[in-house]
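Workshop exercise sheet. Pairs work together: one partner reads the sequence aloud, the other fills in the structure field after running the prediction. Swap roles for the next sheet.
Pair: D.N. / O.F.
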Amino acid sequence: MSGDITNTDLDEILALCPRLYDAVGWNAEKAPDWDTFRACCHPDATLAALSSGAASPIAVEAFVAAMDAQRQSGALADFSEIEIARHVEAFGNVAGVRSSFIAKMNGETRKGVTFAHIVRHEGRWVILGAIWDNEADGKTLPASLI
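Structure field:
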């Protein structure tokens, strides 16, 4: 990797998705860390889950509110994501990360992939946009993404 990307930059970029995954997760003993989640994202970041097959981009605060509502209502009693593979390309002030993960939701486990656009903003690396999709019936994460 070149284009003024230092090893420190690469370390910061590589740490973003796992930090985001850890922050968003919860269970009976652990609440989500929404402050860390927000800190991983650009103030104007756009997020979109594509599991339903239709893109519904939302802002960070709307995502936090929607996830917290599911947690507080009990609709989603536990949620976690762990990165299992990644690929990074970076140049200058931009990076693209493909991060494959295992998600656990209410005891159900499935794999998925996040594609994140990451930028250097005010001296640190943050997610400007992220889209993701999870495995479902008839839709399995290919080995090339793991």
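Discussion prompt: The chain has one domain: 7-145. What would you look at next?
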